[in-house]
Amino acid sequence: MQVDAERRAWRILVSFFIVFLLLCGSSIYLVQWYVFQSTIKMGANLKVARGTVRIILPNTHEAIAVTNERPNLEKGTIIQTDEKSQAILTLSDPRSGQPVASIVIFRDSEIILTRASAPRFGLNAAPYRIRFTSNPGRNEVSILRDNQRAVQIEANSPHAIMCTSESGLYTIETTNQHTRLMVRSGQATVIKKGTEEELTLSDDNRVVVNSANHEIETLPDEQPLVTNSTFKRSYKQDWIFQSDGEPTAFIRNVTFDSRPAVALDRSQSNWPDLELGHGETGLLQKMDANVNPFDSLELRATFYVDEQSLGVCGVEGSECALMIRISYTDINGTEQRFFHGFYARHDNDQGYPLLCNSCRQEHERIALKSWYTYSENLRTLLPADQQPFRINEVYFYASGHAYKVYVSEINLLGIQSTPPPDEAAMK
User: Reduced to 3 states, what is the DSSP secondary structure of residue 227?
Assistant: First the structure.
C-alpha cells in the first residue's frame, strides 16, 4: 500500500511538472506571437476626388453615398465609382498616421479591400500587407517612398494577380475579357491565374492577360516624353519658372503626403495685410518630340488643390486652380494649343464661365484638399485634322488671386499598339 501511494505521488508530481512546462512554453509562444507576429488593421481613409462615390460595407447590401471623406474602412468594403467620379483610398500606419500606399479608383470602377494589416509593435519586422480585388474598371496603386518598413501589395483580378513590394506606380485595367497591367515605375510580378505563369515587369512595361488563352502577352512599353515629370529632383534642372502678377508666388520642391511634389504657393497667409490681385505661377518645359508614331498620347497630371480664392476659374474662365497647356504642331504643320483647367472652389454666384476662350472642353470640377489624377488620351480629345505631330511645350500653372497647389506629376506618355520594326533585322 505504501509503495502504491508513493508511485501515485510521483505520477501526480511528474504530471503537474509536465503541465507546468506546457503552460510556460505556451505562455512564451503566445507572448512571442503577440509581440513579433500579431497584426492590427491599417488606417484606410477614402477621399472623394470628384463627384459622388458609393461604398458597400461588409455584411450589408446597402450602398452608401460618399461626397467628401470616409475614414476607417473595414476589410471587405466595396468601393464603386460612376462615369463622373474618382476616389483615392489612402492606407496609413495605424500609429503614426503616415501614408504608406494609395489606390486611385478611376471612373466606372470597383474594388474590394480584402486586407490592410500592419504589425502591432515596432519590434515586429513583418511588412505592411495590403490586398484588394480589382473588378471591371481602372485602378492605380502607389507605394509611397520613405516607408520605415516594407510594403507588400497584392492586386487580384479575374485573370491575374499582381504582387509588388517596390516603391512605385502601378496600373490595373480590368474588363470581363482581359486584365491589362502596367508598371509606370518600380517592379512587380504578374501571375496568370490557372497556369501560375509568372512574369516580372519594371519601369514602363505593360502586359495583358486574356481569358481566351493561357499566356501573358507583352505589350510595347510606354514612352515618357516629359523629363523630371514626378519632381524627384529639383524642378530647376528641367523646367522654366514662369510668373505673372505681384507679389510673385513661391515655388519649391517639397514632400507632401509622402509624395515628392512641386508647390505653387500664393496663399493669402503669406501676405495677410495685402489684398491679392491677379497672379499666375507655373513651370514650362520646352520639347521637340515627334509623336506621330504613337497611337495613344496620354496626358497625365496628379495634383492637390489646397487653396483657391476665386470661384470656378474667374470672370473669363482663365484663372483656374490648375491649368495645363500643350503647345504642338499638328499633322498639317499648323501651330496649335490644347488647354484644360481644373477648379476646386465650386460656388458660382457670379455665373463665371466653365470654358475659357481657347479651351476645347469645360473645366473639371474636383474636390478641395484631395489628390486628383487626370489621365486622358489626346488622340481621342482632338479632331482628326488637328492631331499632334510634334510636341513643342508643356506648361502647367496655377492662376487666380490666392492659391496653393501641389503637383506630383505632369507627363505625356506615348504608346504604340505594335512594336516598331527591328532596324537590325531590316538591314
Answer: coil
For the chain, the straight-line distance linking the first and the last C-alpha, in angstroms and rounded, comes to 105
CA gap 274, 268 in Å, rounded: 8
**Cα 85–Cα 89–Cα 94 angle in degrees, nearest 5:** 160
* pLDDT tens by residue, 201-244: 999 999 999 877 767 899 999 999 999 999 999 999 999 999 99
| The architecture CATH gives domain 40-219 | Sandwich (2.60)
Q: Which residue's C-alpha cell is 502607389?
A: 142
User: Strands 53-56, 78-80: parallel, antiparallel or unpaired by DSSP?
Assistant: antiparallel
Mean pLDDT of the chain: 89
Alpha helices in 130-283, H assignment, sequence order: none
Tens digit of each residue's pLDDT (9 = 90 or more) over 247-300: 999 999 999 999 999 999 999 999 998 989 999 999 999 999 999 999 999 999
Topology adopted by domain 235-415: Jelly Rolls (2.60.120)
Nearest alpha carbon to residue 382 among 328, 333, 310, 322: 328
pTM of the predicted model, to two decimals? 0.88
Q: Which residue ranges make up each domain of the chain? A: 40-219, 235-415
395 CB-near residues (< 8 Å, 6+ apart): 242, 282, 283, 284, 285, 324, 325, 326, 327
235-415: same fold as 40-219?
Answer: yes
